[in-house]
Amino acid sequence: MIFGKQEARPVLDKTNIPVHIAAIMDGNGRWAQKRGLPRTAGHSAGSEAFQNAAEYLQSLGVQYFTVYAFSTENWKRPAEEVQAIMGLLDRYLRKAIREMAEKNIRLRFLGDLEPLPESLKKLIAETNEISRGTTGMQVNVCLNYGGRDEIVRAVRSLVREGVDPETITEDLLGSRLYSADIPDPDLTIRPGGELRLSNFLLWQNAYTEFYFTDTLWPDMDEAELDKAIAAYQGRKRRFGGI
Ligand code: IPE
Ligand code: IPE
Ligand code: MG
Question: How far is Cα 197 from Cα 73, in angstroms, rounded to an integer?
Answer without folding.
Answer: 13
